[in-house]
Amino acid sequence: MQAVTSSLRRTAIRTHIRPSKLIQQQTRTLTTPATTANMTTGTFRYADPATINRSSTPFIKSWSKVDVDYSSFSRVSVSKPVHDLRAALESSPSDFGVDVSGFALYNHPATETSFTDERAIWSGYYAEVEALLRAKLPGIKRVEIFDHTIRRNTNNSARKPVQQVHVDQTPAAAATRVRRHVTPAEEAEKLLKGRYQIINVWRPISHPATDFPLAFIDWRSTSPGDLVPVDLLYPKRRPDEDNEDRGKEVAPGEETYPKTEGYEVKGETYGVVPSEGHKFYYVKDMKPEEVVLIKCFDSWGEGLQEPWGRGKKGVAGWTPHTAFVDPATPEGTPGRESIEVRCLVFYEDEE
Q1: What is the pTM of this model?
Q2: CA separation for the pair 338, 321 (Å, rounded)
Q3: Residue numbers of the domain that contains 293
C-alpha cells in the first residue's frame, strides 16, 4: 500500500510501512523498448492480486479512498511501453474511438480556462462539456454531469494525480449513479433499460500535462479477468450538509491514510491487475486546448449481461487509466494541473 506525495514528484514513490498492517510492495519489471519520439516507458502501479480481499463486507472488502492515493491492498509496479496517441491517430485514425479503443482525443479549446471558480465550472464549463459530447457522439438524448475533480501536483492541493491503474465505475456503481442523479425514479428506471455510458472528459489546465501525464489502456488489450471490484470510500458529511461532494475536497493528514473512521462507502471502482497484453497510450505534452474522452462504462459493452446491460460484440466497455511518471520529463517542468468531468450519457432508443 502506498501513497504518493508531491515532494517525491518524478524521482521515487514512498511506501508507508506499518509492519502489523501493511504488506510490502513487490516490483516486477518487463523488458521495454527504448524511448522514441512516438513512445516512452512508464512504471505502472497495478493492484496486487495476492492482497485483494473479495469479501462483500464493507471495510473488509478491498477499498481505495477518493481523497488520497491510498488503498487497503498492495500494488505491483510494472514497466511498460507507452505509445503516443497522436502518432497512432496519424497513421490509423479509424483504429481509435470511445467505442473502438475506449478513448478518443479531440482538439477542442474551452472558454473556461482558469477553473478556480466552482460556480463558473458548473454553469459554464459543464455546458461546454455537454456540447462537446453531443457533437462527437451521435444519438445522445440526455447528458447528466454528476461530478468533476481538479488535480494539481502542488503541495497544498486537495487532489493530486493518482498512480493506480483503475476504472472509475463498475456496472453496479454505474447503475447506482443513474438512480442517484436522475429524477423522478421512474425516469431513471426507464433510462436504465436503454443504452447509457459514463464518460470522463479530461483536459489539462493552464499548461501542457508533461508532468504526470495520463495513460489509458486500449480496451481491446484487456479482459474481464483483469478487473477487481474495489469499494470507494468518501469522507462522511455532517448531518446538516447536503449530499454534494463537489467543491468540498480537503487533503487528509498522512496519519489518517490507513484509517477508515470517518469514511463511508459511496461507490465502487475496478482495480486492475497486471497483464502482459495491456497496451498503453498517452498524449505527449497534452495541451489545454486538447481533450480526451475516456469511457468508464457502457451498457452495450461487449460481454455485459442483464441486469447491467446488453453487450454488443466489439463495443468497448471500459478504459483502465492512470497517471504515470514519464522518464523523459525535463527537470523544472510545472506540476500537472487537470480537470476531469464525469458524465452520464443516455442515447435514443433503438428503432
Answers
A1: 0.85
A2: 14
A3: 26-347
